[in-house]
Amino acid sequence: MRERAMHDEGLGRATWRALGTQVELRVRDRNELAAAEAQVQRELDAIDRACSRFRADSELSRLNARAGRPVRVSPLLAQALELAVDAARLTEGDVDPTVGRALQLAGYDRDWRRLAAPRGEPQPQPTRLALQARLGWRTIGLDRATCTVRMPAGVRLDLGATAKAWAADRAAAAAFAASGCGVLVSVGGDIATSGPAPHGGWSIHVTDDHRSAPSAPGQTIAIRCGGLATSSTSVRRWSHARHTMHHIIDPRTGAPARGRWRTVSVAAEDCAQANIATTAALVRGGGAVDWLARLRLPARLVDWQGRVTVVGDWPEALDATAQPARAAAR
Amino acid sequence: MIAASVALTALFAEAAAHAFPGKSTARATSRDGHSSTRSRRGAGSAGKGSSDKTTRSLRPPAEAPQATSATPHPAESSTSGRAAPTEEPAPPAEAAPAEEAAREPEPQGTYESAPVQESPPPVVSGGS
């Protein structure tokens, strides 16, 4: 069901589902809502056709099916793959697009909503997952001039850690170009902005689950530019082979990450960068705070006991009695 | 056997990396995640504006997020003192995926009414 709402400050809002999740569009000028919405839909449709692992007719599915042979892909998928390899390089392999096979072996071989309900906490996985996952991102060969991709037989790519956030960035840029007014695009809680922000900024509530109400435990902040992403291992969980799984794979083990943090939020220059950082932080666990601090990325990390640590310029809650631990920049 | 498999895999990865000289996008990275290589944009990009750039480093936003006057959720608890961590309750048990699928139908292509409201609620950013 699509929803639209108009607000007295001139803001317009629309929500719908795409890429298997909830999409929200906000525009500063409600008269431009339809024009912006059309652009967002167009961008998300294009990303879905190129990058979805769950569509048999997507370019990515065809590429995965032809692993071991050189494959020509569209410029759009080539760019998505370049971003995914960049993510792996920038995180020293913590975010690795070659975890597609590990996700399949963990049972994530269809839309998450069609998987079995989770049972308890994630468990260590059989060795075969680790061995399948070790081929790694360095085995991907991408020739941008010819849009040709080569990867070893057996490799299955998953662009979940980058494509959705990148789609938000592209959609926000396209919507701003079409409407001329400031826009915010949220794709499953991965948030991109483009153009001038409203007075006071875009209001964002960070919490464990993007499907939560704005009153859920968390923190409300405002951003004026760039992107913001939140990743959590407390959501998108399912049961497979009597184990509870989740979607953040540690490429070094091939199993769901079992780090210190349950939820990480990061603000960055754009949403793709933010989501790369949140995913890597969940995989890094205890080392994430120093890493984020070195990068000067504002971040908020919540551990499994519910304790909050903030990094860099992440704002503290205005309630003086609820101050999180602040990690010093190194 | 595991050690042998890992060694063979590493060997294979190394061989694959050398199989396409000058083609692979893999690059060495410094410890802080900043690349020492120069930006390199490919032809035929379908993107627009800043979203068309490839990500060569992880950078903070031009303006840091700001605190808002929104009151923290009453379920949050904390201990006193700046260094004491805020505590959030554990997330509620997640609904079975099948239940969520039933709760959130696919788009029907129709719009609900568009009433004018005073101010929009915050956008929620959470795991997905």
How would you portray this structure in words?
The complex is a heterodimer of chains A (about 325) and B (about 130). Chain A is of the alpha+beta class and about 325 residues long. In chain A, about 30% of the residues lie in helices and about 25% in strands. In chain A, the strands form five sheets. A ten-stranded mixed sheet of chain A has the order 1-2-3-7-8-11-16-17-18-19. A three-stranded antiparallel sheet of chain A has the order 4-6-5, with helices on one face. In chain A, β14 (about 250) and β15 (about 255) form a beta hairpin. The radius of gyration of chain A is 19 Å and the shape is globular. Chain A starts with a strand and ends with a strand. Chain B has a two-stranded antiparallel sheet with strand order 2-3. By secondary structure, chain B is of the alpha+beta class. Chain B has helices spanning about 1-20, 95-105, and strands at about 65, 75-80, 85, 115, 125. Chain B contains two helices and five strands, in the order αβββαββ. Chain B starts with a helix and ends with a strand. At the A-B interface, β1, β2, β3, α3 and β5 of A face α1, β1, β2, β3 and α2 of B.
Alpha-beta classification of chain A = alpha+beta
Percent in strands of chain A:
25-35%
**How many whole angstroms does the radius of gyration of chain B measure?**
24 Å
Instruction: Please tell me the overall pLDDT of chain B.
Output: 52
Name the poorly predicted regions of chain B.
6-50, 71-85, 95-113
Name the shape of chain A in a single word: globular
User: How much helix, percentage-wise, in residues of chain B?
Assistant: 10-25%
Quick one: overall form of chain B? extended
- DSSP summary, beta strand count of chain B: 5
| Individual helix count of chain A | 8
Kindly estimate the percentage of residues of chain B that lie in beta strands according to DSSP. Answer: 5-15%
Q: What is the total tally of β strands of chain A?
A: 19
